[in-house]
Each structure stands twice: as structure tokens, then as C-alpha cells.
Amino acid sequence: MNANILILVVFIAAMYFIMIRPQQKQQKKRQAMINNVQAGAEVITIGGMHGTIAAVNKEAHTFDLDAEGVILVFELSAIRQVVKEANASVTTEELTGEAPEVNESEADSDDNQETTDAQKSEEK
Predict the structure, then answer these.
(1) What domain of life (predicted)?
(2) Torsion angles phi and psi, residue 48, rounded to 5
(3) What is the pTM of this model?
(4) Position with higher pLDDT, 103 vs 58
């Protein structure tokens, strides 16, 4: 009788460590990902939509997804994967799709640098 109870306890413990515990870890990781998502992050939704997060509304648990200029509103739980984290160094070009303006003096100095590099390689 005691052997049967011991087998049952071992079986339940094995089920916990094989099935339940890894699932709980995965849920915590997903919840942390959703809680830390910020505007500018590139995500994939559960429906397969790829885009950049334009805004996050924590109170309503929604986010605005910019998919090539089309803004769509999704629940935060619709995020399947964060492809690229948002960071402070997100450029205007990445968000708007437009190239930033370059001063003529900066462009000239870049051209001069390339010319001098080419001349040095020719001399060798």
C-alpha cells in the first residue's frame, strides 16, 4: 500500500517539474515582455502582422501598431514576439521613413575624406 502512494507522489512530482513549472516560467517571461514593451519596438502580433509600436496605452492595455503607415490598435496580449527592442537611439528615419537632413559642410567633409583615402591608397 505504501509503495503505491510513493509511486503516485513521485509521478505527481515528475509531472510538476516536466509540465507545470516550465509553463509558469514561460508565462512570466511573456508577461514581462508585454509589460516592458515601449514605443519604437518592432513586434510581430499573434496574427502575423509585423510593425513598429507607435504608442502604448497601459490603462486600456492596448498599443498602436504602425504597419507601413497604417496605424492599427491591438490588445497588448496580441504581441507574440518583440523582434527589436525600442531604445533611445531610434532615429527619425526609422520612425518616419524619411532620411534626415545633412548639412552641406558635413557632406563636403565626408567627400573630402573619401578622396584623401583613395589618394593614399594610390600612392602606396
Answers:
(1) Bacteria
(2) 95, 5
(3) 0.56
(4) 58
